[in-house]
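Give me the fold.
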Amino acid sequence: MELKKNPKADLTRNSGLYFVIGLVAVLALTWVAFEWKTYDDDNNFDYTMNVEDTLDEEVPMTEQIKTPPPPPPPAAPEIIEIVEDEEEVEETVIESTETSQEEEVIEVADVEVEEVEEDLDIPFAVIEDVPIFPGCENEKDKRACFNEMMQKHISKNFRYPEIAQEMGVQGRVNIMFVIQKDGSIGNVRMRGPDKNLEAEAARIIEKLPKMTPGKQRGRAVRVPFSIPITFKLQ
């Protein structure tokens, strides 16, 4: 015999309804909790605004501008009195400086003015009368003869320094000197790549003979002259 269950005794029959009712109740409690407001009983709130009193600030005092005093009035013009010229003025008599025929004229002797000779340096290229190298006295072109004799003198007395040869030193030495007013050689200066070459060039120039000095307007003057000496290893 099959057993049958009483529908009234089934507890799960209305479970869906109970779930909905419980869910609504929970939502209602949650809404009430969020909307619930409370107020303090202290009603002694001070509604006055905290405004600072700006009248206590220091107001800067305006500086008093002193105006300069007015300029003094212009002085009154002096009153010029016109006085009649009654006083007598003595006239100054200027005597003539011209001599009369009766006075004797003293003759003054001629004053000799000594000419001061100035030491002038006239370059060899522009001097009127070039210095005369010994042996060029009878040549017409003494300037060309001077240059030719200078080259011969250098070739004759040329000697390559041994120490410069060992070191392999070579180059050009520019040498300058002055032919003095007495024909001697002075003020020798040189510039080259090595001291040994410079010393040899100076030795050659110091062996130059005494010359006839150069002249400008008939007066003996100093004549600067420069010439290069080339030292070249073969």
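DSSP finds four helices and five strands in the chain.
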